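Long-time lurker. I teach an intro course on protein structure, and each term I like to show students one example going from raw sequence to a predicted 3D structure in token notation. This year I'd like something fresh instead of my usual example. Would anyone be willing to generate the tokens for the chain below so I can use it in lecture? Attribution to the forum is fine with me.
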Amino acid sequence: MISGLGTDIIEIERVRKAVSKKNFRNSVFTENEQAYCESRGKNSAASYAARFAAKEAFFKALGTGILLPLTDVEIVNDERGAPQIKLRGRAADLAQSKKIFLSLSHAHDFATAICIIE
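-- Reply from a regular --
Happy to contribute to a lecture. Here you go:
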């Protein structure tokens, strides 16, 4: 049974400007996320934006708002390349024993994410 649904859409250019500031990058994205996004070359801003949207969608689905460190929610890819959420700290406690489904997309100027929690 679905206990939460969250979605978010964000302008890629807005994120491109924000991630140019190291403090923002480090407060929002883990080292692994930064390494992945930077490895995407000219698509790095779209990758950052999709991951930012995923974190927002997760918190909306959880129903807590963003009251936890964003780095406690890490967006990773499984062996097939599908996005997954890896949780730490209080985020892991709040979502304990819940199933989380995540979808990311980006095209042209926008990135979006949908998160479902069962």
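Some talking points for your students: The first strand starts at residue 4 and ends at 11. The radius of gyration is 13 Å.
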